[in-house]
Amino acid sequence: MEELKNPKAKLSIEVSESDFEKEEVMEPTRREFLKLCAASAAGLGISQLYIPQVLRALERAAVSNPPVIWIQGAGDNGCLVSLLNTTHPTIAEVLFKIISLQYNPTIMAGAGKMAISHLDTVSEKTKGNFILVVEGAIPTKDGGIYCTIGQKNGKHITMLEAVKDLGPKAKAIIALGACATHGGIPAGKPNPTGAKGVRDVLGKAAPIINIPGCPAHPDWFVGTLVHLLMYGLPELDDQARPKMFFADSIHQNCPNYSYYMEGQFASKFGEKGCLIQLGCKGPMTYSDCPLRRWNSGVEWCIGAGAPCIGCCSLGFPDEVSPFYVSLPKELWPEKQTELA
After folding, report:
1. Hey, which end of the chain has fewer CB within 10 Å, N or C?
2. What is the pLDDT of residues 114-133, one digit of tens each?
3. Distance (Å, whole) CA 289 – CA 250
4. Domain assignment present for 202
5. Is the pLDDT of residue 208 over 80?
6. Alpha-carbon gap, residue 186 to 189, rounded angstroms
């Protein structure tokens, strides 16, 4: 793994299909799965690494079809749109063969009273067994009235009520995206709706996995979900993020790292050099974006010439603003401590 921390080193991680090609292999070991996730950061993408044998192993592991309830609060549904870009297994295979998606207001056919009734029925029948996915922030001011998910008996159901009701019943909770992990943009100053993240609302009511990002990368969600189904909770850092995706700072693996070491800094967009003076938040942001990249491994923010704006930091956007102003010198890597 040392080679991953050196941007000039050749990525040599390999996953052999021979590890999974024998039909009698029921499922990859946890070590093999983590190796698969690491290899996907070399530009292949988890969704592109799943060979049929692995998909069948997932189906066998999920023979009971763990139900998933996905609720959406204050946000733009960007994390769902991002997830829809997973290619193999397809989003349909993930949501209907590996798991059983029981509720998602954006892509489900039902609506209104029928949808809310189904939500109530599923959450009670599968209490303690379903996975709750929360996308979007949770407004808390004035009883949470600024975000509702439906009605029951003529009364609005707030997102706040839904999270407090469903959270303690869930086997595990995935807070997906910056809004769900810590409030994100809806919680930006002056935060008129009192928007908060899942952990701030529920505390330790249930195991919570934070997957930050604006939006979150589909590999982060798929990889976390698969680990949860096959091996249980993944190893988390002190902010409840999966270490397999959020262990290193963006600065450590940035292709501009050598420019930083040589003291070559871009003074305007389009110039060669480290982008820290143009506001790059890579030194204080932890994720594998430089290695995994986006749009099936095609590109990412810094690769496209823009500085990292720190959307994976639990404090985005306020704590990483203004976006295009240089970090204070005391936060430059030589003096950096754990800031993400």
Report:
1. N
2. 999 999 999 999 999 999 99
3. 7
4. yes
5. yes
6. 9
